[in-house]
Design a protein that fits this description.
Length: 429
């Protein structure tokens, strides 16, 4: 830690000499011996984004990821006083920001005072008094720190999930599906209904992530049981918000697992999809046996008739179709496509190969084959012609009452996987 402080001070001196402007140095107040974990990095990266959003374009930015913790250095063309005012506002924005330590160093090498004293993360009293009296032991401070980290992570992941659901439904054109052009092959759904549904699911997605953050040492079947209970509550909230219309039942299962997998990755390392697969596998055989003999949902009836495992199989295998779609979507974004166009262009890639249970439910094997053939035909066109081709297909899908709802769920998962990956990559440049 002493070496880290010395390197930080040297960096600050070098930047002051180079730019002759105030320096912003951002670190985290993390109690305990372990200063850098995936969970602390998630909150740190959020702090970096907030700093950059609050300030004019940086003349300089550099991020360090050290064992002693993450650090970031910025130089902005702004006065030290105004910069400090904005940094204090960031530090006081919400509970998680109480872990931020943002110093503004003037050209004379001195730190600017923040004025109002910071509050203790344990009791909320002025921190100086708590420190002087040693009111709280290290273990208590570590628990409070962990609680702040986990609370932020759960809400953040839920926000990404709802953002992915919104991006998917708004992506236009999508043959047979609700989008900004029309309601597709659905008479009981529209954009507003999907918005209400996503909003109703957000607190339940947060709870699913929180369960995994809390029970990260539990056996997969134990955590999976808790997630299923929360998933049923999420379904009730969805039906209450939509008047009984099934807008996101498949997404509740898949996204809930993926969020839990990401939460486990934040705790234990590894990949979100791998952790989610272990959860899905923990009770899949029992669930499939039940679905084969006593199917209760359209998806289970499809499994009983066609042996297509749908969302369960995709999750148990580690979301291969969703990960492939996320890679395709990322390639379109890297090529300069907008979020809307990249999502719409990714859809036929999914439809071409997915055994979409919603298509099987609505159109049987003939409907599924038709949709897959049309998707392949779109992909055979020059890329510049594909969006128009998808728009033209909409009328035929509506006429045939075909809706690739499983593909839509996969598209939302791809958007979520992209957002989860972007969380880290966007900040460390």
């Amino acid at each position: 830690m002493l070496s880290a402080r010395e390197r930080r001070a040297e960096k600050q001196r070098a930047l002051t000499e180079r730019f002759a402007r105030p320096i912003v140095c951002f670190t985290m107040n993390i109690a305990g011996e372990v200063k850098r974990t995936p969970l602390t990095e998630l909150v740190f990266f959020e702090g970096v984004r907030r700093i950059e959003d609050a300030m004019p374009p940086a003349l300089f930015r550099e991020v360090w990821r050290e064992k002693t913790g993450c650090e970031a250095f910025f130089v902005f063309d702004e006065s030290a006083e105004e910069t400090k005012r904005r940094m204090v506002a960031i530090e006081e924005a919400d509970a998680a920001a109480r872990l931020f330590d943002i110093d503004v160093i003037n050209m004379d090498g001195e730190k600017l005072s923040r004025g109002a004293e910071r509050r203790c993360i344990v009791c909320g009293a002025p921190v100086t008094g708590c420190a002087r009296s040693r009111a709280h032991g290290l273990s208590e401070i570590v628990r409070s720190t962990d609680a702040l980290l986990c609370s932020f992570a759960a809400k953040h992941l839920a926000g990404l999930a709802c953002g992915a659901l919104t991006a998917e439904v708004e992506a236009t054109p999508k043959p047979g599906l609700v989008d900004r052009n029309n309601n597709g092959a659905h008479r009981d759904m529209d954009l507003a209904l999907f918005y209400r549904s996503a909003a109703a699911l957000k607190p339940h997605f947060a709870r699913m992530a929180a369960l995994a953050l809390e029970q990260y040492e539990a056996a997969p079947e134990t955590l999976m049981a808790a997630l299923r209970t929360e998933g049923l509550l999420a379904e009730r909230a969805m039906f209450a918000a939509t008047g009984g219309v099934n807008t996101h039942k498949g997404a509740i299962f898949s996204m809930g697992l993926l969020l839990a997998g990401k939460a486990l990755a934040l705790r234990r390392g590894g990949e979100a999809a791998s952790h989610a697969a272990a959860l899905a596998q923990s009770d899949m055989e029992a669930e499939l046996r039940r679905a084969g003999t006593c199917p209760e949902t359209n998806g289970e009836r499809i499994y009983a008739r066609y042996a297509v495992r749908g969302a369960r199989g995709e999750a148990a295998e580690g979301f291969p179709a969703a990960r492939a779609a996320a890679e395709r979507y990322a390639a379109y974004r890297k090529d300069g496509k907008s979020e809307n166009d990249a999502l719409a262009l990714t859809l036929p890639h999914i439809m071409a190969g997915l055994s979409d249970t919603n298509l099987l439910h609505r159109g049987g094997e003939e409907g599924l084959c038709f949709a897959q053939e049309q998707a392949r035909a779109v992909l055979a066109l020059p890329e510049a012609e594909r969006l128009a081709a998808l728009a033209a297909l909409d009328a035929e899908f509506i006429r045939r009452n075909l809706s690739p709802g499983g593909s839509a769920d996969m598209l939302a998962l791809a958007a979520l996987l992209y957002a989860l990956e972007e969380t880290a990559q966007d900040v460390v440049k």
